[in-house]
Structure formats: C-alpha cells, structure tokens
Amino acid sequence: MENFIDPKNIKQKIDDLREKLNSSNHKYYVLEQPDITDQEYDSMMRELIDLEQDNPELITPDSPTQRIGSNPSSTFEQVIHKNEMLSLSNVFNFSELVEWRERCEKQSHKKINEFVLEEKIDGLAISLTYVSGILTIGATRGNGKEGENITENLKTIKSIPIKLLGEDYPENIEIRGEVFFPKSQFDDFNDERESEGEGIYSNTRNAASGALRQIDARETAKRPLDAFFYSVGDAQVASLGTQKEILEKLRLWGLKTNPNTLFIDKLDQIEPIIEEKIQSRSNLDYSIDGLVIKVNSVQDQIILGSTSKDPRWATAIKFPSTQVVTKLNDIKVSLGRTGVVTPYAVLEPVNLEGVTISSASLHNLDYIKSKDIRVGDLVVIERAGDVIPKVVKIAENNQRAANSYEFKMPNNCPTCNSQLVKNENDPFTRCINSECPDQIKRLLEHYCSKSCVDIEGLGEGIIKQLFDNQIIKSITDIYKIEPEDLVNLEGFAEKSINNLINSIEKSKSQPLSRIIHGLGIPHVGAEISELLVANFGSLDSIFSSTHESLQDIDGIGPKISNSIYDWINIEKNRDLINELKNTGLNLENSTQENRNYTLAGENICITGQLKNYSRQGIKDLIKSLGGKFQSSVTSKTSYLIAGENGGSKIKKAEELNIRIIEEEEFISIINQREESL
Fold it and tell me: Are residues 327 and 294 in the same domain?
C-alpha cells in the first residue's frame, strides 16, 4: 500500500524533507561528516521529487531538487557586481612582504601585526548573492565590474548551499569564493575525454572554467567541482570586526571555508610557512599558485581602502613559476585505444619542480598550428595541475633557427600503416582500422586498468609481452590464460604467475558498470556505464536496447546514444559479448538490498602501498560500506590507513591527532562491526 499523506500536511512534509536533505548535504559536502547513508538520502530525495511533481505550486528556489533541471540556456546574461571584484597586488619574497606591511602601517598610521593567511586557489572566482538566505544570483568575476550569470551551473556544486543556514544573515548579502576542480580526479577526467575523442584540459583551472560555462547545467553536474569561500562583498558585515570572524560567520551560514587558513600575529611567522607551502602544495587536492595575506581588522581594511586595481589591505604571495623553458627536439605521435593519433614533444631534458621532463603533450595538430610551434624552437613547459607536462607556447626569447621546421601529421598509422583520417570539424586525426595492434593493446590496458576491472599485474608492459607472444588478442583471451602459457615468458616465476591468475579470477566479480566501461565504447565512461546498468540491469538488456530506449535515459544525449547504438550493432562487438558470457564475469547488476553500512559516517584516507588491495579496490570497499574516501588528511578524517612507504599524510595525521591504522586493523574493524549487526 502506498503511503497516504493528508493534503493538509503535504506542505509540512515537503518542508521537513527539504530541511533534512539540505542539512545532510551540508554535513556531507562541507563538514565532511555524513549523518545518513546514500540510500537514505536517495530515498528522501525521490520522495521529495514525487511530492513536488504532484504539487508544483509548492516548489521553492531553496529546494534541493532545484540544483539541476533547468532548461539549457543559449547565452549567459551579464551581471554587474554591486561591489567591484578587484584583483590582488603581488609580492614574490619575504622582503617584499615586509615592505607591503610597512606601506600598510604608513597609510593607516598604526602598527599592524594581525593577519589572516589563506591559500591562493588556482580556480575560478565567483560571486554569490543571497536574498533572504536564498541563492538568487551566482556570477563569474569577469572583468571585475561585470561577470556572467552562471547561477544554475553553480547550484549543481554540492558544497554551495542553495539556502544559508541559521537566521542571522543579512537580508541581502554577496559572498565571494573560488570554484576548483580536484586534482585527484583531473587525470581520469582528461583520460575519459581523450578516449571519447574530446579535447582535454591543460590544467585544473581551465577544467573548472569549462565546467562552469556549460550551456546545460546537467553537464556541469557531471564534473566533480568544489568551492571555498573567503569574503563578503558588502560593507554591512564590518561590524564583525575581523577577517577571522567573517570566515567563522561564513562557516555558520553553511559555506565551506579552507581549513588550512591561518591566523598570524607576527609577520616573522610567515617566512617558514611560505617555504613549507611551496614544498607541500603537490600534496593538496587542489591547485594553488601562492598565498593571500590579509590585514585581519576590518576597520583597518576600510581605512587602507583600495587603489583602482587592488585592495591595499591584501596582497598575494606568489610562488615560483611552474614553467620552464627548454628546446623542442622533435615531435612524434602516439596512438590511443580509440584510434586518436596524438602528437607529443620530445624535449631537451629539463628539471621542473624536482621532476626531469623529457616529453610533453601537444594535444593535436590544430593546437600546434595555432601556437606556431616548430621543431627546434625554445618552448615553455608547464605541469598542469602540478602533474601533466604540457607545451604551453613558444618562449619569448626564442630565436628560430634556420633549420627549424613545421610538424606534419603522418599520412599513415605508425603501427598498422593504415591511412589516417581527419574530418573537417574534428580536431583529432584517427586510425580507423579496428584491427590495429596498438589500438587493441591500448584497449586491453584500459580494460585491465584500476578504473575498469582492475587486474593487478596486467599493465602496459605485460600486456605488450602477452600480445606480442599471441597469448592475448582480445578481452576474452584474458580469461583463457593458463599458468602453462606464462612459464616460458621472461619475468614470470611461480609466484608472479599465481598472482596474475588470482587477480584475473578476482576481476570476474567486478560490478557490471566497470566491465561496460572497460569495453571501450566511444563516449561511454564510468558515469554513463553506471547509468546504463541502472536503467537496463544486465548486459543482455543493453544489447537488446533500441535507439529510443537509450535516448530516453536522463543524462544520455543523442551523441552518446548514437555511439552506443552503433557499437552494439557491430557484429564483432556482439560476438565479443557472447564470448564474455562464458568467462564467468558478472554480467548482471548486483542487488543492493542486503548491503550493509558498517562504515557510515566514517571519513577514511590512505597512504602508501597496501598488501591486499589496490588503491581503487580499497576506495570501492569503503564506498560500498557507506564510508567516504578522502584524498587528503583533514580534521574530519576518522582513520588514516598506512601502507608501506607512507608519505607526508602520516605527519599530517599525527599533527591533527588522527588515528593511524594498518590494513589488517582496518579489516578487523570491519569484521567486528559486521559481526555485531
């Protein structure tokens, strides 16, 4: 029997659901303290959606259902900032910082010793306007005077409250912050885009900007964006007294602030902090390009005022450049699993932040032409997101040699010699031979990767060895490997053979969505794979789907549905699926009815190499038991699981008095809790 709600009580029920969902959302995404399971959250959200659909007159702007769902807009309206969003002046060392403090003291006619020190997030500056506690306008910084209205896109970011908490906020207030793209998800995001034939982002800042400028907010919602908030645009909160108090007030209103922000009462304290931040910034899950120091007293800020460009009471402490100049010796190409031929730079080896760089991405032929990059040039190299080396541009001091030359894409595939194809509206050059050996090897690598079926021991080198020895030629061949196939191969002993066979066997229990992701269907990544499983339930049902049934799935547009439909109707692919049925793989969606949540409310971080789990494997275990995986140690961390060769996270955990446990103890905790259920 369906639950009956008295019509008189419907509004109260809707209000109660909104309050519970908004509260749980804040605890999960801002405080990192989940209070309910994902299942409970989804159930309440489903109930609220149903009630609002039946009672559309009761839908309000602060409802959590309004995060996503608006129709795509064709343009972004301009928003004039009530208070100009100024840029920051820069200092590049401690002596320049001392000079800045001296200018502040001269201007204010008083000694200034109290400061707030914040990390300078390399993201996208935003402005949020709340009226009566409800988010009404979200805008980019733009030129400082006016930006673009991206309200619907910003609503998709779970750490941004649609409704402020508490009751003591001003009737109308502008709040400023920075949206960023987590570094831990940047590489996977780019890999997925590249595998689907889409352009990749050069750094996390561009990825954040690209996500927020999607015409369809539903596309923004697919990106793992986050945000920190650090100031207000209105003078009405001057009564709070200090920048430190403003940050505390933002937290009480439900806005996420950076936990690494420091209060400084002596300028001398800053010098070692700067050096430590330069050395440790690669450990953060967001990119920073410096620090921001602010005079703590709001009254002093008012006295100091601003120039036409920047506030006098704040300045940015810029870090050394993450760019270096070196010579481009050659341009070669590599082949991806979807046939995309990607040019890359062969460089004169150069040290960049402690890493020797000898090659870097050049994206595609259009990119090379637009930058007029030629072999023999001096070029600027950048580590995007502190990770991926990219050729950014020609160096300013480049003096082009007479023997420099333009790169020309080869006419034939470097592997199979098939003719390469480049369509007019496609920036990528492709090999369209499905039997191309390198494509097959890249597909096998993808299938075995941690994000797919996670077969430990089947990396690039071993796959090449097995392929070259004709032991594997397709995905199904992986499950036909016998120990006797490996005994005569270099590098294989009894232990490594047993480990590989066991890892292959273990992969058969991976969720169906991971198997689908591993098949290499164009435009089908992890998220689309999960959508397919949720809507069809089995691989057979997916292969029996119609064009219409694919397009009916929310989140799958015409481009993706066409790609899936075309792929499943290729005879070779249908043969592959029929062969997979005989491998013992999990080709049905596993039920969640008996799922336990022994780790509900726990925030768990990992460092070092574990004995029994891959990094992805332990993440999946934590998530399956209702816990939350953290990429870095914070004050909200419940446990740090320390494996061999643990890094700086251990020191951080010790400083924060976070419990540090080994893998065996973690498994023991899970077992004990399950026994008590």
Answer: no
Q: Is a pLDDT exceeding 80 seen at residue 322?
A: no
Query: Tokens in use for 391?
Result: 């050729």
Residue 434 φ then ψ, to 5°: -65, -15
Q: Mind giving me the DSSP string for 535-595?
A: HH-BHHHHHT--HHHHHTSTT--HHHHHHHHHHHTSHHHHHHHHHHTTTT---BPPP-TT-
User: For the whole model, what pTM was predicted?
Assistant: 0.54
CA triplet 457, 460, 464: central angle to 5 degrees?
A: 105
Instruction: Specify the number of domains making up the chain.
Output: 5
Residue 630 lies in a domain: yes
Torsion of CA 519, 42, 212, 340, to 10 degrees: 0
238 and 304, same domain (yes or no): yes
The overall average pLDDT reported for the chain is: 84
CATH code of residue 395: 2.40.50.140
Report the CATH number that the domain containing residue 12 is assigned in CATH: 1.10.287.610
Residue 421 belongs to some domain of the structure: no
Question: In this predicted model, what pLDDT tens digit does every residue of 416-437 receive, in sequence order?
Answer: 999 999 877 777 888 988 789 9
- Torsion over CA of 451, 453, 454 and 455, rounded to 10 degrees? -150
pLDDT in tens, 20-77: 887 877 776 566 566 776 556 666 777 787 787 777 777 877 787 776 544 444 457 8
The answer to whether residues 471 and 563 belong to one domain is: yes
Catalytic residue list: 120
- The angle at the Cα of 491, spanning 490 to 494, to the nearest 5 degrees, equals 110
Question: What residues make up the domain containing 130?
Answer: 89-318
Query: How would residue 485 be classed by pLDDT, with cut points 50, 70 and 90?
Result: very high
CATH code for position 443: 1.10.150.20
